[in-house]
Amino acid sequence: MQLTVNSSINMDLLMYTVSIHVPVLQVLVGIFLFVNSLMIFTFLKKEVFREDTRYILFAQTLFVDSAFMVVNNILFICYGFQYRIHMIPCIILCLAMTFFYICTPLTLVAMCLERYVAICMPLRHAAISTSRNRCFGFFIIWGISSIAPIFNFIAYLSTVHSSALFSYALCSVELLLGEEWVAQTRALIFQIIFFFMIVVVLFTYIKIMIAARAASSDNKKSTKSLRTVILHAFQLSLSIVQFVTPYIEIAFWKGDVMMFINVRYSSFVVFMIVPRCLSPLIYGLRDERFFIVLRHYACYGVDNLSQSLSIRSKVRPI
Q1: 112-132: pLDDT as tens digits
Q2: Which one of 71, 104, 115, 136 has the fewest CB atoms closer than 10 angstroms to its CB?
Q3: Which residue ranges does the record assign to the G-protein coupled receptors family 1 profile domain (predicted)?
Q4: CA 166, chain centre distance (Å)
Q5: Between vectors from CA 173 to CA 167 and to CA 175, what angle results, nearest 5°?
Q6: φ and ψ at 106, to 5 degrees?
């Protein structure tokens, strides 16, 4: 399946719209990648963060979100300027984007489970949060994230002629959904993952909120915990909505190209960039230990000796 531009479309207006969208998008993506890179650098510089499951999961979201943003940005620019690329790199980019697309919300669900164990089962947290269990958890996340890309790849190869692999096209994930049954099966996979995440998130957050209210007599501390829960729930809701947006976009894919680009641009900003910007806010800037070290490196280490000693003393405890 290949999108062709109708001759009635005003290409000048299309290029004008894209020329406005692309610079704004590049600024947003550039800021996002800069903040993520600084946080990844902060994570790698301190061993205490590399030994804590919470921060390791946070680092994975930073890596995955950054890779997803780069790949999606490349595809958006190519599609916006109607630039056709070879199908083999197109397939690789689309499969990688689908993998990253699923991996982020699954990692957030894993972070919910980690917080549930830490708050509701504090005595067992150290025994459960081991390097072996972390590796096992990552294999589960990566395995589930690979189901949809592997299915898309096998289904695409089975439904197109081999010569199609050497053609050029406007690269989009929709290219891999040439047959109706492929799109329906992919939707079913997303729905199963969606249901799984909803169940886990609801269970963990209800338990965490009950435990936080029962254990905390400090109203200020309780309020902060509830705000974190609300921010996290909002982020997950936006991330989960990502599974629905492709089926909204595909309705415009065969019609007006400019409308399709506008819809994709809006969904990209609202459901791709915004929830990924919340990760640095929730787990980076609002985390006191991480923020102290982050500020230290963001200021290029321009601290006096007492401030440096204060940083070291605060980041040692896990």
Answers
A1: 888 888 878 878 888 888 888
A2: 136
A3: 35-283
A4: 31
A5: 40
A6: -65, -35
